[in-house]
Specification:
Blueprint: H1 8-13, H2 25-36, H3 39-42, H4 44-52, H5 56-80, H6 87-94, H7 97-131, H8 151-166, H9 168-193, E1 213-214, E2 220-221, H10 223-230, H11 238-241, H12 250-279, H13 291-298, H14 302-315, H15 317-336, H16 354-370, H17 373-401, H18 414-431, H19 434-458, H20 460-464
Antiparallel strand pairs: 1-2
Helix pairs in contact: 2-9, 2-12, 2-15, 4-10, 5-10, 5-12, 5-17, 5-18, 6-7, 6-17, 7-8, 7-14, 7-15, 7-16, 7-17, 7-19, 8-15, 8-16, 9-12, 9-14, 10-18, 13-14, 15-16, 17-18, 17-19
């Protein structure tokens, strides 16, 4: 055998409970756009502006370029290995069991925290609407912000999890509709804010410098510090690769979904970020949980701001749907390979992994209910950067190991794209807050302990091959 088929765990995964192919490329592209365009541009643009000032525009460009390299690597690997599991699956096939566990453990961190972050961001837009009708403000924020629990965030996770349990095809149809609403909403913001562009709002352009700099209050600022946070705004295309098993024509649909959604979202981000920073001094919306609506209110466009807030409440759940979907598929494949209890791999009569979906929803609801948005997003980025590095390395290793294997999509300039993704992700990882890096290392240390004590012996490969 050649290429990825040499790895026993992948072959075994293909004999386990099967998911039903139900997604065409429009569904996958909608999933990608829905997962990418969300909290990052609707809420984290405020956090990014606080870290970099007007140079947050440059932060978006840098994060987007690195993600573009990673997206090309994902497209090549996904079409070459059309199995559920995303970076975990590719790592298992190319780099081996131990690396695959680390990547899978990092993906658990990424997807779980992304869902939590977006739920908190959704709550930020829903809160003004709820408090206006008498909902207690203490129940709209976690203890770190002086509240009791973020009930709106918990609620929306439960709603999306219920939808995913109903069925993949039904979820995809609703997701496509909500993505259309989201794009129209952002177009409305640009149409109103861009004509008010004032070049004076871009000065000073880089008040905190380019490289990461830790200020006396402990906050990491600078263009790269902001890029390390708003990097969150660009990833989401990896959720498409988790749907490989459910794609109708994976050799075509996956590459269109991954690359197409990334290109579309980059254009959207450039327009929205330019309109936001040019319309209002960044200090007025920095760290706001609803920066776009705030900008419009400051411009005297209260009615449009209200429409934006309502549309965000309606459309942000597409991100939760995409990542909660992806998390359940990664858990599914890890359970098939024996890393998690095999009972979690059960598929319902409607073709969905209900047990894993509910388990994931409970976990992320706890996180969303108590943690503030910037801390969750930074830690989610750490897990994502590890996964992106692994996928880029997998692509390069396969180019050397098996250059003749069929590649329905070939990343252009692979020996520039691959190292670009690896080095860029490493630089962004180093630019994360020190506390975030410490928590990430602690998370992976715990993961390695679990692997050595449980996963290593329970995995299918471990049961079939003697250990030295």
């Amino acid at each position: 055998m050649t290429g990825w088929h040499r790895r026993k765990p992948i072959e075994t995964a293909r004999t386990g409970p099967r998911l039903t192919p139900a997604l065409s490329w429009p569904h996958l592209m909608a999933m990608g756009i829905g997962s990418i365009v969300g909290t990052g541009i609707l809420t984290l643009i405020g956090v990014g502006a606080d870290r970099a000032g007007p140079a947050v525009l440059l932060s978006f460009a840098i994060a987007g370029a690195i993600c573009a390299c990673a997206a090309l690597a994902y497209a090549e690997m996904a079409t070459m290995m059309p199995a559920a599991g995303s970076a975990y699956t590719y790592s298992y096939a190319v780099l081996g069991e131990t690396i695959a566990w680390i990547v899978g453990w990092s993906l658990i961190l990424e997807y779980s925290l992304v869902v939590s972050t977006v739920a908190v961001g959704w709550s930020g837009y829903a809160t003004p609407l709820l408090t206006a009708i008498g909902f207690p403000k203490a129940l709209t924020m976690g203890p770190a912000l002086g509240g009791i629990a973020n009930i709106p965030a918990i609620f929306i996770i439960a709603v999306v999890a219920g939808l995913l349990c109903v069925g993949t095809r039904e979820s995809a149809r609703l997701n496509t509709l909500l993505v259309a609403i989201k794009i129209v909403t952002l177009a409305l913001f640009v149409a109103v804010a861009l004509p008010a562009f004032n070049a004076q709002n871009l000065h000073p352009f880089m008040p905190h410098g380019f490289a990461k700099m830790v200020e006396p209050d402990g906050t990491a600022r600078g263009v790269m510090a902001a890029a390390a946070i708003i990097f969150f705004a660009f990833y989401g295309f990896d959720a498409i690769s988790t749907a490989a098993e459910e794609a109708r024509r994976p050799e075509r649909d996956l590459s269109i979904g991954i690359v197409g959604s990334m290109l579309a979202c980059t254009l959207i981000y450039i327009l929205v970020a330019a309109a936001a920073v040019g319309a209002l001094p960044y200090t007025k919306f920095a760290n706001s949980p609803e920066p776009l609506a705030l900008i419009l209110r400051e411009m005297g466009k209260g009615q449009v701001a209200h429409i934006i807030a309502i549309a965000a409440v309606i459309a942000l759940p597409t991100v939760i749907l995409g990542f909660l979907y992806g998390q359940s598929r990664i858990f599914l494949v890890m359970a098939r390979d024996g890393f998690l209890p095999t009972k979690l791999a059960a598929i319902s009569s409607r073709g969905t992994p209900v047990r894993i979906t509910i388990l994931t929803a409970v976990l992320v609801s706890i996180l969303a209910g108590i943690l503030p948005i910037d801390q969750i997003a930074a830690l989610a980025n750490a897990g994502t950067l590890i996964a992106f590095i692994a996928v880029a390395i997998c692509m390069l290793v396969m180019r050397r190991r098996d250059p003749a294997i069929k590649r329905p999509f070939r990343a252009p300039l692979a020996w520039l794209v691959g190292p670009g993704a690896v080095l860029g992700c490493l630089y962004l990882f180093a630019s994360l807050p020190a506390k975030t890096i410490e928590w990430c290392l602690l998370w992976n240390t715990i993961g390695l302990v679990i692997y050595l004590l449980y996963g290593r012996h329970r995995s299918l490969l471990g049961q079939e091959a003697p250990r030295l």
